[in-house]
Recover the amino acids of this structure.
């Protein structure tokens, strides 16, 4: 069950942590900045905000949570949660967003 | 990379140290998967109502303070960095730095809670706590605005509860490290607390744009 590497765990250098931290702060400023974009781009703004949030979450998982340096079993577990989350979102939103296609009394 | 590294003992039920570490980390991720689904249910609820009531949610969200939310996001991201540093120094077996960064992380977590407390207090004064005394202008949007604030308090409240639990766990770890307890000679307890703490950070990374930055 070993990961094939040395028996010691991987120690991430402080420099990498600092770099990820600065990137996260830049992305945070970008999110707030995008919210103040002139004009009404509701869809565009939502897509930008959520894309940045996903990128930030992936950065935290890969570097702060060491998933990038972890074993394949850890990879599987870390992705399983989000995989199931996507299933839940697709089924729930797929239902709510398509209800008006077939109007039924009392469903609105 | 050649540098000093904390010693780890292999418990009797494990083949070697790699298997032992992997078991602990996968175990923690299993817990985090349940947490992802737990918060995921709230996020799905929020999305369904947000899509149905975009305009009123936009009106209601203007009562939240973007500067305070921005500040708290910075605090939480910084606390994630300091937690990562705690894990880094634990892995290298440097006790003093480990204690220092753990204490900084606790201080940042408490800062987050204090700011959140001021935000909640402000909502209370403005009459934005869902219930009999809920006030909102225009009055015809009151029901949906109350829905927004119910979701706001449920999601940030559950998140704040996780921060409180994190503070408790980190305080216990600080005491154990300070008295050189044998259970924290190994860096794994710190690493697992770190995984939990970064998860709490990830939840906030999604909460902040969804609640504070609703486009018109």
């Amino acid at each position: 069950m070993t990961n094939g590497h040395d028996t010691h765990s991987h120690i991430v250098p402080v420099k990498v942590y600092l770099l990820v931290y600065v990137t996260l702060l830049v992305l945070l400023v970008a999110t707030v900045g995008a919210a103040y974009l002139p004009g009404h781009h509701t869809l565009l703004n939502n897509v930008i905000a959520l894309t940045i949030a996903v990128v930030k979450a992936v950065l935290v998982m890969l570097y702060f949570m060491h998933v990038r340096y972890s074993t394949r079993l850890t990879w599987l577990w870390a992705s399983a949660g989000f995989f199931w989350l996507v299933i839940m979102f697709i089924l729930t939103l797929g239902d709510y967003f398509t209800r008006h296609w077939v109007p039924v009394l009392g469903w609105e | 990379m050649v540098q000093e590294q904390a010693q780890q003992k292999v418990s009797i039920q494990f083949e070697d140290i790699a298997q032992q570490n992997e078991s602990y980390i996968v175990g923690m991720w299993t817990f985090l998967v349940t947490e992802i689904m737990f918060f995921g249910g709230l996020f799905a609820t929020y999305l369904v109502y947000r899509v149905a009531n975009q305009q009123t949610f936009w009106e209601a969200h203007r009562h939240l303070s973007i500067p305070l939310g921005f500040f708290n996001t910075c605090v939480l991201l910084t606390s994630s960095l300091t937690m990562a540093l705690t894990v880094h120094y634990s892995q290298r077996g440097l006790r003093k730095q480990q204690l220092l960064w753990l204490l900084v992380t606790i201080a940042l977590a408490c800062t987050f809670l204090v700011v959140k407390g001021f935000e909640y207090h402000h909502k209370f004064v403005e009459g934005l706590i869902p219930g009999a005394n809920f006030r909102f202008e225009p009055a015809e949007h009151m029901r949906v605005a109350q829905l927004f604030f119910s979701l706001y308090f449920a999601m940030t409240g559950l998140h704040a509860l996780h921060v409180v639990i994190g503070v408790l766990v980190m305080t216990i770890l600080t005491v154990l490290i300070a008295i050189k307890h044998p259970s924290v000679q190994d860096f794994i307890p710190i690493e697992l607390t770190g995984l939990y703490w970064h998860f709490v950070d990830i939840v906030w990374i999604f909460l902040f744009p969804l609640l504070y930055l609703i486009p018109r």
